[in-house]
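Chapter summary example.
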Amino acid sequence: MEAQTRKPEARSSPAPPSQRLLTIYLNDHLAGASGGVALIRRMARNHRGTPAGPRLAELAEQITEDRESLREIMTALDVPAQWSRVVLGRLAEKAGRAKLNGRLVRRSPLSDVLELEAMRLGVEGKASVWRSLSALAGPSNHLDPAAVDRLLDRARRQAAVLEELRVDAAGRTFTAGAAIPARSDRGRARGTPRHPLPRRARWA
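The structure predicted for these 204 residues follows.
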């Protein structure tokens, strides 16, 4: 019986350096997007029933859609999702909750400011990836330049809304709730009314 000669198995050629770098870049942004979705959803829940609640809920819906758009773009560019990076993004968002905000148990108004700043930075990063992808958009990779431009325009509008909410939260937190130095009753003339400390105005 004659031995059958085996054909050498074809080895897949390694991805070019540009593709490897694009894979790292887009997966980093996918991880950030996943953390951002978790954060904005939590913010919308925390402020449900407040004046800011509907705007945050709308942002949560849009930012979730943007993450799905990024996944679709990665598929069009033949970039596989590296879920280990996505998990790290979620863990980073959870770790951010432990940031000191002046209170140990109850939620502090400072948390609103910090979370809005984090979301604003995340949206700015998302706008950067849309700008980078606009340079790649074209018929050769099935990316629609107009679609990428629409994503970029929406990111700009999201950043404007977050900045408006952030400024409002900072004003309420640092102005209305500013600490007033305690004064001794000694030396206060009799009959002079004691002025109560102003209450801290809760954002939204």
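To summarize the output: The CA atoms of residues 77 and 149 lie 17 Å apart.
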